[in-house]
Amino acid sequence: MKIDSSSESTPLSTRLSAYGGKARELVRFGIRDAPMTTSIVVITWVLGAATGSLVHGPSRSLAHQIAAGMGSLQHGRLWTPLTSALWEGNLLRYIGATVLLLVVAAPLERRMGTVKLAIAAVTTQILGVILGLGWASLAKVVDASWGFRLHSGAAVGASAWVVGALMVATANMGTLWRRRIRVGVLALTITLALFSGQLQDVIRLFAGVVGLVIGAWIVGRSARGDRIVGTQREGRVLVAIVVAASAIGPMIAALSPEAVGPLAVLRDLFRGVPWTVAEVRDLCAESSTDPDCRRGLLELRLSGIGPTLLSLMPSIFVLVLSDGLRRGRRFAWIATVCAQVILLILSIGNFVIRFVDAADSESLFYGIGDPNVYRTLVPFLTPLFVLIMLILTRRYFDVSAPAGTYRKLAVSLLALLAGLIVVYVGGGMVARHGFDREPSVALLLADFPQRLVPPVYLQLVDPRLLPVDIEATLLFEWTGVVFWVAASILAFVTFRKPVDALDPRDAARARAMLIAGTGSPLSWMTTWTGNTFWFSSDGSSYVAYRVISGVALTTGDPVGPPGHLRDTIGEFAEFATENGWIPCFYSVTDDVRAITDSMGWSGLQVAEETILDLGEIAFTGKRFQDIRTALNRAKKSGITAEWINYPHAAIAVKDQIVAISEEWVADKGMPEMGFTLGGLNEIDDDNVRCLIAIDEERTVHGVTSWLPVYRDGRIVGWTLDFMRRRSEGFRPTMEFLIASAALSLESEGVEFLSLSGAPLAKVATDDGSDSVELEAMTLSGVMDNVLEFLGRTLEPVYGFRSLLAFKSKFQPRYVPMHMVFADPAALPSIGNAVGRAYLPTVSLGQGVKLVRTIIGR
Predict the structure, then answer these.
(1) Cα(232)–Cα(215) distance, rounded to whole angstroms?
(2) Separation of alpha carbons 4 and 730, rounded Å
(3) Within a domain: 156
(4) Are strands 551-554 and 752-757 parallel, antiparallel or unpaired?
(5) Rg of the chain over all Cα atoms, to the nearest angstrom
(6) Residue 10 lies in a domain
């Protein structure tokens, strides 16, 4: 629905002042409701500055007094489990701890209360340290190296108690958040403990476990609610989290020089090269089995940014696959299974190389200088666990991409390989003097497959060539990186392609059902181009939706018998989740919101519908002064209201309507908004009525369109959609047309008119209660604030709030319109989908102009 409106512009200085006031209000709010967290942040920075620990962390002498460790407890420094939480290891960690406290601990304090947070923090910190040190003693039995590092290590940092308190808080959270947070936190902390392996990582893990165990004792348990629709999707998310953690672990070990955990098998692979290419060739010429020769070849392969990235690319590719798992894609499941099988084979190969051919005590496989059965078998367990998990959950991953997607992917990959072969061979011949030996075409072709393999897997294969200058090094080291990056991007793109299940007959079927059945005031919008139709199992109802960025975004209420509404919502939600989509019902009525609330869903108000109840309408009294003035002025000016059907209207009238609309769009400098806002295409419909303001010379001054509203097969109301007026024409055109439509349709026996809703605008409420402040801190509350901000920001361009204020002239009845969704964690994706639904064709230039308009007005 569009209207040409103008509003008073607010000076930028006034806006900045208002934003500053909001910032000060947030600071006061944080201090009042999170005093413990705020105090700890201040104390941590003050202590760090006072002791000179901000840059490089506590000195050795200070660490002996305040850091948690075996030595501290053995010497009776029993306060260290608590004091260790007030220092950090370096400046970056001070900044990270501050962010963690403000983003995690502060909301927890508002949720749990200061006293409960303090109990959770102290308990999980102390028990986490005790259990972590106990594990350090136990670890020496199975891994002397790791156990020694834990035993002699010292730990500082606030992350342990923050993680512990977070796990405590999950005890009384809803099912979805409880599972997400617990799986995510445990996966992350276990990964850090096994790969990074520092004492603080182990303490953090045990603090989380303690919080998991004692949470119900501190905050109680959550009430068991109804079954949440979409458990299949939730299973996909949890599996994706675990797979992502298994991929992140090797990257942590590879990139961290301090990684000492039992799975940190890559920690020695990225180091400086003590020899040149010529020196290594000389060593190998004397004896190819010499340990220095093998070590030199290994380090030449693994040195530099290119080899480092190439060694990490399989993990990055698995991260991409985890996104496909989140969406339920079968291809992602198959590819991830294959990846885990390959890792298992490599682990078995590692074992065989070490213990069948154990004569070589200088083995460099995985860079481990002290191989043993434990350190060889532990890496075997991670892919085995992930593989078993994938097999047990294979039923979750049944979403297929559109037909031909992976045939195109295969063709693209083959074309990519062909192009890289040409580049590598051709470039190698051009830069042939840049290698340690002059290559031939055959030698370069034979060497090409090794360029695609991460160098950590080539340690037992002698290199055919080694680069000695920049050009040859770029070809040698970066060809494989380009391949893996491109393959990851191509795979990611396939996961975002929805299955196109639209049958051309569905639109006609849906329209026939709507005309013969019952819908909401927005139901006619379900017939618009861009929607796909889903029909209930009994064929009595349908839902119109569009898939945008993995979100199944509906238009209005489901259409069908009101008694089937709950079943229809549940069925559609299951259908969406089975296809890997996030179900979201947009612009729905209170009836749908009540049902989804009872199902455990979340929701927020996105617009305010304005209803004019007909039957005894009379524009009398002071409240309708503007309306009467418009009617009287139109009569004096010879302007009348005339109903037309746009597809069959006179060409001269249609041309004027098109010109008025194009003028309106050009004035905005932005594309027309779509989704629930109709344009010229939507009024080109035999079932849509248009009311135009036209003078005696047949000049059209304005136009409105009205969508039919059906109940039990008959029209009971009309919904206002398209609104345009000529910029130089009769100014109160809209007041005149809407009032004329109300009087005309009332005489036809219509029950009501819906003036529809203005997106991102709603009736202001004066409620300063604490409950409103607390609600603002929830994810839905944050999203509500974001929508409020967008409404204010876009007002200079689209005038949604001015539109709502304009409609208030008719003294309508206000009915809230909602957006409801099963998964609050998906709000960012849902917000993106809604934005793209309304503005699917915004160009870069239009985006820049929008920003300039917002800032400049």
Answers:
(1) 27
(2) 12
(3) yes
(4) unpaired
(5) 33
(6) no
Residue 394, Cβ neighbours under 10 Å: how many?
14
The CATH number of residue 675's host domain is 3.40.630.30
| Pair of tokens at residue 544 | 């119109």
Q: Look at residues 763, 834, 837 and name the one whose alpha carbon lies nearest to residue 800.
A: 763
- Residue 648 contacts residue 689 (beta carbons within 8 Å): no
Q: Which of 793, 789, 816 is nearest to 804 (CA)?
A: 816
CB atoms within 10 A of CB 308: 20
What are residue 29's phi and psi, to 5 degrees? -60, -45
Q: Is residue 1 part of a domain?
A: no
- Residue among 90, 94, 77, 92 nearest 41 (CA): 94
What's 125's DSSP letter?
A: H
Tens digit of each residue's pLDDT (9 = 90 or more) over 666-694: 555 555 677 777 888 889 899 999 999 99
Nearest-angstrom CA–CA distance, 70 and 745? 84
CB 776 within 8 A of CB 784: yes
Under DSSP, the state recorded for 103 is: I
CA 848 from centroid of its chain's CA atoms:
24
Give the tens place of pLDDT for each residue, 335-376.
999 989 987 887 676 566 555 544 444 444 444 444 555 555
Residue type, 189: T
Task: State the DSSP H helix or E strand holding residue 551, giving kind and residue range, or none if neither.
Answer: strand 551-554
CA atoms of 152 and 660, how far apart (whole Å): 79
Q: Are 614 and 660 in contact (CB under 8 A)?
A: no
Do 88 and 97 contact (CB within 8 A), yes or no? yes
Structure tokens at 89: 């290891």
User: Is the full-model pTM beyond 0.70?
Assistant: no
Q: Which residue has the tokens 């940190």?
A: 264
Region for residue 698 given its phi and psi (left: phi exceeds 0; alpha: psi -120 to 50; beta: otherwise)? left
Secondary structure of 686-706 in HEC code, one letter for each residue: CCCEEEEEECCCCCEEEEEEE
Cβ atoms within 10 A of the Cβ of 328, count? 27
Which of these, 399, 393, 827, lies nearest to 603 by C-alpha position?
827
* Domains identified in the chain, total number: 3
Identify the CA nearest to 147 among candidates 75, 90, 197. Answer: 197
Structure confidence by residue, pLDDT tens digits, 613-636: 988 787 888 888 889 899 999 999
User: Last residue of some domain: 434, 460, 495?
Assistant: 495
pLDDT tens track for 293-307? 656 655 666 566 777
Quote the CA–CA distance of 592 and 576 in Å, as a whole number: 17
Q: How far is CA 423 from the centre of its chain?
A: 37
Cα separation, 431 vs 422, in Å, equals 14
In angstroms, the Cα distances linking 145 to 153, 450, 778 are: 12, 34, 45
Same-domain pairing of 667 and 786: yes
Dihedral, CA of residue 317, residue 318, residue 322 and residue 327, to nearest 10: 50
Beta bridge partners of 211: none
Select from 495, 510, 528 the last residue of a domain: 495
Boundaries of domain holding 447: 277-495
